[in-house]
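Hi, here's the filled form for the chain we discussed.

Project: internal
Contact: R.S.
Residues: 715
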Amino acid sequence: MEAGEDFGPWLARQLKIAGMTQAELADELGLTRAAVSAWITGRSVPRPAVMGEIAKALGTDLGTVHTRTTDTQAGLPVTWYHRPGYQDGGRDGGNAAAFAFDADVQVLARETCQNSLDERLVQNGRPVRVRYTIHELTGEALDAFRAAILWDELQPHYLAVSRSAADQKVGRVVDAGVRDMFEKSRLILLRIDDYNASGLTGDDYGDGKFAAVVRRQLESLKSGRGAGGSYGLGKATLWATSALGMVLINSTLSVPHEGRTERRVIGRLELPWRSVDGNQYAGPAWLGRPDPETPGAEVVRSWWADEETVERLHLTRDNDEPGTSFLVVGAHDVASLDQSKPDSAADEDENGTDDDGTRDIRVMHRRLVEALGRDFWAAMTGGGSRLPLLETSVRTLRNGEVVIEEEKVDPTDRQPSRTRALRAFYEGTTVDRLTEAGQVALRTVPLRLPLSGGLRGTLGTHQGVLLVTEAEDRDGVPNQVHSLRGNRMTIKKSGVTGLPLGVNSFQAVLLLGKAAGESAPFAEEAEDFLRAAEPPEHDRWGQTEELTLRWSHTAHHRISRLTTEVNAAVKGLVVRSRSAGSHESAKLRKKLTVPPKGTARKRAAGPVLPELDGLEAEIGAGGEWRITAEVKLPRAEELPAMTPVVLLDVRSGSRPRLDWAELVAVEGCEVEGGVLRFTPHARRAVFRGSTDATSHPVRTELTRLVLELRAGTGE
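And the returned structure, exactly as it came back:
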């Protein structure tokens, strides 16, 4: 049973809702105003017999007054309030902040999960739990939800937007969203629930987290200096992902407001300027209870909803743990449309038939899981005394029935090498140099922090932590550095340039700011500097307006020098010294032959062909040749396909051709059926291959190798 609110604050709010003064209630009860005032200030409580009279005066039942777990229904009912048009004739074609991001569930996952991380309750040491629920409504379930959001009140506004859709980008999106809902008789809801977070605390109108999210734009009130967000733009992704421009909110507060913590509900609608029944409206609208203290009681505020209401709005939370639930109404994922071919193939069942009509939500499910594993693997990783900061999961429903069971995102499955590296750092098991499989090498790299205010000089040197380990296939693109700071969200992904051929594939992690350790020198200052160097997307570090204003127009050069230090440190760990194994390498080099450029016959004028420019090889444990080759690509709009052919060099007669056991692309090309197809506008390509040892006519150690590139199929 939920604990009831203290009688005084509860009664004060009910009087405000009902538009009744303390004196009016006292007259209704036949008591003095002082008696009512004493109840409200908590100096006394009414006798049981008086409780019934109070219930009658407020137009509610005795149980509501006794339990005080919800507001009475006295006063004005929940409705939509639409902001009036500007008196000076100004018009907004939509919320400009929403245009900072694409309608992409992966972008939504990145921004919302970052916000939840920033609002994690740190005192208990537990991670913030974020769950994404995709829920498709059809038929009666859709009709019931439309009734719950008071669709009949909204329909004239959507019709007005549709009429002007040709002149407004936002209007075209909304018009398409409404048509999709009615023509296909379906609606996709995407709910983001976080637990062990602060919730939307503060007053409806004053400075606080509630007003910053629900009432204001470009305002960021984060809980700590290590927060990921800084522009106040991330919340706009919620509305950008809604084809109807609608988001509903249910928050459980970590700090009571009006004596309550549970089921603080409000909705916000983002539409462009419109004219309805001769009245002009500026754009946004809010779903809430009219505030009697506003002129004409027109402006609505959040209300404390009952359990039945939040259930009808699909906003029911699992428990009373603090946090917020955001419901994106009419969620659409434009980016997933580009993946129609592979996904449609994946959705076909064993009999070759199409899916059961849930393809869109299945694609959204997969893309959410991918994004969370890619961007937040570090926040979900713990080790030693370090606990994970985050837990995430995704589930998919249709009319309340499970389509895909709740899937907890496992960082070790999505990013095995990087999680191994980070865990080794936390557990203190790193090494100075990589000598065995599975090891994690550590280097420190300096970030020299500038003085603020345009002053010359260095404030101090922050030592970032660089971790390097061998790559695994599930990591994705090899030879990458993932950089992050205090909130452990991946900020920057970059390759290491200038690596020689034949280097073993690796993955690297760069920890800066508080991620390098709370005791790392200048950790706080590094957080501040790097946060200012991030754009609204928080996907890189570089020149920004804030960096220029607070430091100088050359401050970003410090980050460029850090990148140079990181690349040099990585090469020092993964590139083998030329002296090591030089004798064996010399033997192998004698066995490798790349046709000399000078001996190639001059071709008649025609298309320029790619040229083999470098070759490294070793003999594997099974007697196969393992080859890494580099191809120089000419400047041309289209390059012909080329087939790599491996031959044995003999003194006389034709050269025996060996079979490939494996042939894979590394950079600048793709392999299809043993043929190389080159990436347009690339300047170089690299591929790897292993020969089939069973096709060797003699022992590999006794042979010399020739690799040729032949145009076309190579036959």
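Let me know if anything looks off before we file it.
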